[in-house]
Amino acid sequence: AFGTSLTAGGPVVPALAASTPSPAELSRLQKGHARVRYLLENWDALTSTCGSKIMSNTERKQVIRTEGGGGGFCDKDPLKVQEFLGYKSTEDPLFKADKLMVRAAPLVDPDDFEAYLDTVEKYREKADQGAMMAYTSSWGEANPNGGKEVVDAYLEVTKNEVVLTEGLLRKVLGFLGLEVLPPQK
């Protein structure tokens, strides 16, 4: 998947073996994983914004008529997901994490090398899919035939992608012998 080649010494990732990441760089994976776990454990609170709109009495009555109930008004904020997956800031621990994972390949037991690279590729696919679904979800209400229920449906698909991403990231940590940190923001 990453253009591996076999040599007499075993599998090598071309041009990357010389730049094996430092422990400080590898800690980004641990911190990023802890942030993804935090996102999943606090999904509703992080992907919703409630009570932040100021409405006139007329607007409030319309909202009650069209959305039912009279409780607090909440907007979904699916783009928060991208922040926790490393797609919003170069300072995020998971920013370009797949590149870091490939550089870390020489640290993996040679018997697990192919499985590791396969896991890294799946991680990249799932993280990309989660970020894309978050973006798609953010437009669910504005699109024709859209609405809050469309945003909710896309956000549920997004969450499923993030759950899979977290599992693959945990597996990468295992291959690298890195401790799983408790969830943290």
Written account of the structure:
The radius of gyration is 20 Å and the shape is elongated. The chain has seven helices and four strands. The chain has helices spanning 23-41, 43-46, 57-67, 80-85, 97-103, 113-138, 148-176; strands at 5-7, 10-12, 48-50, 74-76. Helices cover 55% and strands 6% of the residues. Residues 1-10 and 64-71 have low confidence and may be disordered. The longest helix is centred in the last third of the chain and has 29 residues, at 148-176. By secondary structure, the protein is mainly alpha-helical.
**Integer-rounded radius of gyration:** 20 Å
Q: How confident is the prediction overall: mean pLDDT?
A: 82
Q: What does the overall shape look like? A: elongated
Structural class: mainly alpha
Q: Report helical residue fraction.
A: 55-70%
Portion in beta strands: 5-15%
Instruction: Tell me the number of helical segments per DSSP (H or I, 4 or more residues long).
Output: 7
The largest beta-sheet arranges its strands as: 1-2
The helix/strand series, from N terminus to C terminus, equals: EEHHEHEHHHH
Please outline the major beta sheet. 2 strands, antiparallel
Distance between the termini: 32 Å
Number of strands: 4
The unreliable regions are 1-10, 64-71
